[in-house]
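Note to self: the last two entries modelled the partners one at a time, which told us nothing about the interface. This time every component goes in together.
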Amino acid sequence: MSRSIRLAVIPGDGIGQEVVAQGLKVLTAVLPQDVKLETKEYDLGAQRWHATGETLPDAELESLKQHDAILLGAIGDPSVPSGVLERGLLLKLRFAFDHFVNLRPSKLFPNTSTPLAGRPDIDFVVVREGTEGPYTGNGGSLRTGTPAEVATEVSLNTAYGVERVVRDAYERANSRPRKKLTLVHKNNVLVYAGHMWKNIFDKVGQEYPEVTTDYLHVDAATIFFVTQPERFDVIVTDNLFGDILTDLAAAVTGGIGLAASGNINPTGDFPSMFEPVHGSAPDIAGTGKADPTATILSVALLLRHLGYEQQAARIEEAVAADLEARDGSARSTDEIGDALAARVAG
Amino acid sequence: MSRSIRLAVIPGDGIGQEVVAQGLKVLTAVLPQDVKLETKEYDLGAQRWHATGETLPDAELESLKQHDAILLGAIGDPSVPSGVLERGLLLKLRFAFDHFVNLRPSKLFPNTSTPLAGRPDIDFVVVREGTEGPYTGNGGSLRTGTPAEVATEVSLNTAYGVERVVRDAYERANSRPRKKLTLVHKNNVLVYAGHMWKNIFDKVGQEYPEVTTDYLHVDAATIFFVTQPERFDVIVTDNLFGDILTDLAAAVTGGIGLAASGNINPTGDFPSMFEPVHGSAPDIAGTGKADPTATILSVALLLRHLGYEQQAARIEEAVAADLEARDGSARSTDEIGDALAARVAG
Ligand SMILES: CC(C)[C@H](C(=O)O)[C@@H](O)C(=O)O
Ligand SMILES: CC(C)[C@H](C(=O)O)[C@@H](O)C(=O)O
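The predicted structure of the combined assembly is written out below.
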């Protein structure tokens, strides 16, 4: 564990600025006195693109690389054509820094709302592959805009890429009390990629005899997310299925305002990046209504990744206690940040 | 409206046999006396494959073509490698008969269970594209089974294919009281296919000024399915997203036991095929526990497609009344079929 943290901060668009400010507040409050926190802010996102046409220049990518981790708020604005910032900035970072483990825990905290009747006991984590599948930007369009247009999207999957994320998921499952790992894919239709995933899943599983395994098609998995979410412990899945499932998971566990995520490169070759699952929510930007909890929980994942397990746990306990203590009255972004900073410091 | 129906019946595997028997029972009961129903049963599925290695021989495909419609129970068994029957039989039929409209209505009937608290008012229909996208079987695997394996899945999308299904969806939306159509895709990541879908959606929309439109990314759509399903009226989406969303839709509207579907070729060039969304459920096959309601509702879609609107509505009303009258005691597959046959005849 290093006694200094060089943190790159990308507040981004919309509520990104506001929630990141609270994340930094809590991070500062929880860190031991002798840990030096150096932050460098990067002006990236919609505004920058409008001003300069740039999404992520090489120089900035290089500069980001010199950090221990990245904290990102949110990227995206309706004024920018769909895909420009996603592909040119957010996904570019995930790919350039080889964030092959996209980690998304889902937990139904006490005293939070869920659309599910009966409040099932939800506590699972999705290990979403982050560098392959339908996200590689492979594909094209022919005769664009004409009645004879053909558009393709290619899902690229490699044994190299699948094995490393599957192994990471087994490690995580093996270290949890229930030791259960579910593979989600669609191998009855996407037979090439699906069978490769399943074969690798079975092969690596032989090294983890204590982990119970299960396989579900993605369509069936969505059913269990709402009818029996307590059956899940760790889930491993491809980039697109993971995208879909983790939004659904967030929805059933108190909403997108609480869902944290880490884009992790476990090798340490590149900085990992932590961000809330929610978007930039331009409709509430600047109103103080954004819930910074997802960002603050992302800070916990960041700390855990850098070896500050105790501090990570302290944030998670603070969030649980804070939610438990809520009386239903509305609190501003700042007030929630203050409350959590006070709890982790105390 | 023809005064005879030549119906091909593919009971298939597991509970397929049992539920199809009830579907035929209700069909016979609801049809006017003077309509001649000719059925021909096809032995296709797991058993046939084990016995002969065949999934769908050309001769049978030709023979199926001579019918007005197809009623299918369920296909699939754990004893058959994943993908063999799906690709070789079920999807082969959808593709060979150009079933480009995969119609899946979702309605929360009174007195049925939903995992959602607050029982929202759900009544929407998903128009899932049925002949393109990631379902075309395009892709492959190189160095299969080695650590250097690469597997691809290609999503193929054509303006021709997208426009016809989008137009169908606008027609359906235009004929419903709320007149609302939502496109679901992921055009911030799958930019080639996604932008084509969105452009065509906007273009065709100009012909339907009374239809209100909306666009959602697929991940966000899953959130609204559980937090605000009443916002949806008609949804149009691609083959894979439609697969995922309709299982989720079934889960929130009383379960997969009630979800009907039609694989429709609106041109009439080929017979359309009607089937419950659920699978073959081998674990309960033969126990009389299967709920035939989804199949019976699929028969209603079949009748509507063939022009028997009144009879279709009678089945749907019978199902609603039957569910309403349930007292919670378990009924067998047969008993449910009998009850519904009695109601539609009465
Ligand atoms: C914004 C978008 C590119 C992104 C994704 O699809 O991965 C988001 O939905 C997420 O889940 O982080
Ligand atoms: C069995 C499978 C091939 C099929 C599909 O993916 O379309 C099923 O899930 C469905 O929704 O009808």
